[in-house]
Amino acid sequence: SCDTSQLCNCSSMGLDFIPLGLTAKITVLNLAHNRIKHIRSQDLQQAVNLRTLLLQSNKISSIEEDSFQSLAKLELLDLSNNSLAHVSPGWFGHLSSLQHLYLQGNSYRDLGESSPFSSLRNLTSLYLGSPRFSAIRQGNFEGIELLHKLWIDGSNLSQYEQGSLKSIKKINHMIINLRNSNIFSEIVRDLLHSVTWLEVTEIKLPLEKKSFVQNSTRPFRMQKLTFKESFFTDQTISRALVLLKEITSLKELEAVNCVLEGQGNWNMKEIARSGESFVETITIINLVIQNFHLFFDLYGMESQVHNLKRLTVASSNVFMVACSIAKHFSSLLYLDFHDNLLANKRLDETICKGSWPSLQTLNLSQNSLRFLEQIAKYTSRLPKLNNLDISQNNFGEIPDACEWPKTLKYLNLSGAQIPKVTKCIPRTLEVLDVSANNLKEFGLQLPFLKELYLSKNQLKALPGAAPVPNLVALSVRRNKLNSFSKEEFESFKRMEQLDASDNNFICSCEFLSFIHHEAGIGQVLVGWPDEYVCDSPLAVRGAQVGAVHLSLMECHRSLVVSLICVLMFLVILLLVVVGYKYHVVWYVRMTWAWLQAKRKPKRAPPKDVCYDAFVSYSENDSDWVENTMVRELEQACPPFRLCLHKRDFVPGKWIVDNIIDSIEKSCKTLFVLSEHFVQSEWCKYELDFSHFRLFDENNDAAILVLLEPIQSKAIPKRFCKLRKIMNTKTYLEWPAGEEQQQVFWENLKGALKA
C-alpha cells in the first residue's frame, strides 16, 4: 500500500492491529478507519523516520507507554475519535518533533493531574476534548509555550480551575465549544494576555456582572472575539458591550449563525456611560431575530460607532438603517449588507445626505434593489465611495444616463439581469463586472477601465479594444465565443490576463495557427491549456485547443482541391497526348465496333444485300471516286450498285452502325488506297471499322485499288491486316495511260462480279 514517496495508505482495510513489517523507509502511515484496539510497544519500533501517523476513527482503548518511543521525527499524530479513557504523558515523552496532535473525540473526562504535553516543545496545534470531557485543571498545559491553534470540545465542560490556560504564553487562534456559560468569563480572563483570536461556539451568553479584566494588567493580546451558533438576549448583549470595552486590545467582534432573542431594547444609558468602543470591525452573518421587523433603530448607540471602520451585517433580514445613526458612522470605510431585504424605498433613508461620510466600499448585493438610476442617485451622496457591489439584484433594462459618485472606480453589476449596457455606466470606472447577465455585445467608452469581467453572457466575439484602451484584464469565460483572431488579440495593447475558458471553440485552421504561433499566449490566457477545448470539428471535439493540429487537407481545402483539379487536368491532357500519339482512340473505337459486329450474323441474308460493293476511300480522293469510278461502274451494262458514305448513309444514325450495316448489305468492299488514305491520321478513320468484320470472316470480299503507288511499309501499323493482304494478295493499280485504264475497268468489273 506504499507509493514511491513512502506514503503508506492502509485506511479502511478492516485491520485489527498495526501491520507487521514496518520499516525505516516509511514516512507517512495512514491506518485510519480500521478496527485497531491496542497499540503495543513493538508495533512502530522500526518506523524511525515516520513523520505522519494517522490512527483516527479506530477503536483504540489502550496504548503502551513506550509505543511511540522510536518516533523522534514524528510531526503529526492523529488519535482522534477512538476510545481512549485517559491521556498519558508517557506516550509523548519522546516525540520531540511533534507539531500537530489530535486527541478529540475520545472517552477521557480530563487530562489528569499534570500536563501530558510537557515534553512537546515544538507543538503548534492541539485538538482535544469530547462530549465526555468535563474538567480542565491547573498544570494541564504546562510546557506548551506557543500554539497556532488550540481546539477544545468543551460542550459538557463543568469544571475549570482558574489559571489553567495561563501557562500557554501565546495562542494565535483558540476555538472552544462551551455550553456552560458560568465558566466563560474565567476562561476569557485567563486568555487576555495569550490568545489573539478567541472563537466560542454554542454558548448561551451569560448576564455577566464581574469585569473580564478583573485584576489583569495591560497590555492585552486579545484582538478578535467570535461567537458561533450562540444565543443572546437584549440584556446579555447590553452587558457584554459594556464589559468588552474593558478589553482595550479588542478590535474585532464576530457573530455567525447566532440567535438574538429581543428587539434591540438595550440599556443605551449604561452603554453610553461606559465610554467609546475600541472595536473597529464588526461582522454579523446569519443572525436570527424573531420578529425582526419590530427591532428598534438602535437610537442612543451613536457614540459607540464613531471608531468603527468595517461593518458587515449579512443574511440577517436588514431592511433599513435609520438616517440618524447612519450619520454617526464617521470612520466607517467598509459596509457590507449583502443578502438582506434592502429595497429602493428604504435605501433613501439608509443612504441619506450626510450618512456614511468616509465610506469607500459598499456591498448591497443579493437584496431587492431595482431601478439603477435611483441607486446611482443615492450612492452619489457618498463623497468617498470608490467600490460598489450591487450584484444579484434585479435591475433589468437600465437608462441611458445616471449620476454616480465622481470617485467611483469599482462597480459590480453581475447577475443583475441586464440585457444591454448603456452610458448609465460611469466613465470613471477602473474595474467593471457585468458577468452573468444577458449581454450580447459590449461597446461602452470607458477610457480608464483596467479590468472587465464579462463571463456567463451571450457574447460571440471579444469586445472592441478601442473603447477600453487601458484594459489589462478581461474575462469572457463561458460565453458563446467561437474563436478570436490575432488582430483582435493584439488590439489590446496592455492586456496581461485574458480568461476565455469554457467557450465552445471552433478549431479552425486560422484560429489554431494563431494559437500555436502567438508567442507567450499561454502566459496571458487564464486556465490555459486545460480549460480551452474544441467543440468542432467533430473529429477533435473535447480535445485541448493547444494540442490540436489539423491536416493540410483540412486547413487548405480550396488549395488542395485546386491542386487536385490541376493534376487531373494534366493527367487527362497527358492521356490525350499519349492517346493521340499512339492512336489509342482508334484502337478503342475499333474494338467497340468489332464487339458490336461480333453480336451480329456473319453475313446478312441474300434478300438484305443491296449493293455490289461498299466503297472505302479518302476524302482527298473523292473526285476520282465520285466522278470517274462511280460513273464508269454505275453506268456499265449491267450497272453496279455502289454504296458511298456521302450518299447512302442513313442520316442521324451512328456512323459505326452505318459502316457495319453498309458492309453487311454489300457483296464486296472496295478500298481505294492512296497516300492520303494510309498516311492521314484521322481522315475517314470511321470507315476503317469495316476491317474487323471483313478480315474476321477470312473471305475475299475485299478488293484493293491502288490509286497511286504505295509501299506496304508506309501503311500505319494499326492497319495490320491491310498490310498483310497487300503482302499476300493481288490488288489493282490505277494506270496512267488510257489504254491500260480500259483494262483496269474490265478487271475491276470482273472482280466485282466474282
UniProtKB/TrEMBL annotation:
The chain crosses the membrane at residues 559-580. Belongs to the Toll-like receptor family. It is found in: Membrane. Residues 609-752 form the TIR domain. One of its GO terms (cellular component) is receptor complex. The lineage of its organism: Eukaryota, Metazoa, Chordata, Craniata, Vertebrata. Binds MYD88 (via TIR domain). Its main location: membrane. It comes from the Eukaryota. Keywords: Disulfide bond, Glycoprotein, Immunity, Inflammatory response, Innate immunity, Leucine-rich repeat, Membrane, NAD, Receptor, Repeat, Signal, Transmembrane, Transmembrane helix. Disulfide bonds join C2-C8, C323-C352, C402-C424. InterPro entries: Cys-rich_flank_reg_C, EF_Hand_1_Ca_BS, Leu-rich_rpt, Leu-rich_rpt_typical-subtyp, LRR_dom_sf, TIR_dom, Toll-like_receptor, Toll_tir_struct_dom_sf. This is TLR21 protein. It comes from Myiagra hebetior. GO terms for molecular function: transmembrane signaling receptor activity; triacyl lipopeptide binding. Pfam families: LRR_8, TIR. It is a single-pass type I membrane protein. The gene is Tlr21_0. The keyword Cell wall biogenesis/degradation does not apply. One of its GO terms (biological process) is innate immune response. The keyword Transmembrane applies.
